[in-house]
Amino acid sequence: HQIEAWKNLLAPEPKSVVVTSGTGSGKTECFLVPLLNSLAEQASAEERAVGVQALMLYPLNALINSQRERLSDWTAPFGGKIRFALFNGETPADAQESERRRFPNEVIDRKRLREEPAPILVTNITMLEYMLVRFEDRPILNLSQGKLRYIILDEAHSYVGSQAAELSLLLRRVMFAFGVRPQDVRFVATSATIGKQGDPNTAAGLKTFLS
């Protein structure tokens, strides 16, 4: 399932992917490897990428924080050329420069995030909603115009009913705010608990959900 996801997400024309496999089967790597591959290619050609290229949306802060170690390990060898940020209610407004230097591949405070948005932004739908309307977050959008290429929904089964409808409308606003078209964005949804394997109704339902 990882190889199949990589082939689709690395295709020249943007394609979207739903990954439904069991817990511990490496769903995160299905989208993280192609994303990091793209950023690694950029890192070899330019000094440092600025502007959000990937939104990774998680329903819980614990899931957001759980990505820190993984992203830190995978981006550390690039010496700060590939950066990520965890943006939730716990993200501090500012940080000492000495503290920032300890984490060259992570944007650890909101002030630096607004000055130099990281290519990978890990957040939740509440913070994303705030980011679209808060004046102080406007620089993140301005510096990311036309650059957003991935929108990733982990634990996609948690978005049902009115929350799913709200999320759909929010993502439309996100693409407008970031200055991109849906056909230029790779959408990824992952879940261990959606439907039955081989069931045609599940496959049809997933395509409808993702669209």
Describe the structure.
Helix 4 links the parallel strand 3 and strand 4. By secondary structure, the chain is of the alpha/beta class. It is built from nine helices and seven strands. A seven-stranded parallel sheet has the order 1-7-6-2-5-3-4, sandwiched between helices. The relative contact order is 0.18.
What topology emerges from the helices and strands here?
Blueprint: H1 2-9, E1 17-20, H2 27-43, E2 54-57, H3 61-75, E3 84-87, H4 97-102, E4 106-107, H5 110-115, E5 120-123, H6 125-133, H7 138-142, E6 150-153, H8 161-178, E7 186-191, H9 200-210
Parallel strand pairs: 1-7, 2-5, 2-6, 3-4, 3-5, 6-7
Helix pairs in contact: 1-2, 6-8
Largest sheet: 7 strands, parallel
Query: What is the number of beta strands?
Result: 7
Secondary-structure element pattern, one letter each:
HEHEHEHEHEHHEHEH
Strand order of the largest sheet: 1-7-6-2-5-3-4
Shape: globular
Oligomer: single chain
Beta content comes to 5-15%
Number of H- or I-type helical stretches? 9
Short description:
The chain is built from nine helices and seven strands. By secondary structure, the protein is of the alpha/beta class. The chain has a seven-stranded parallel beta sheet with strand order 1-7-6-2-5-3-4, with helices on both faces.
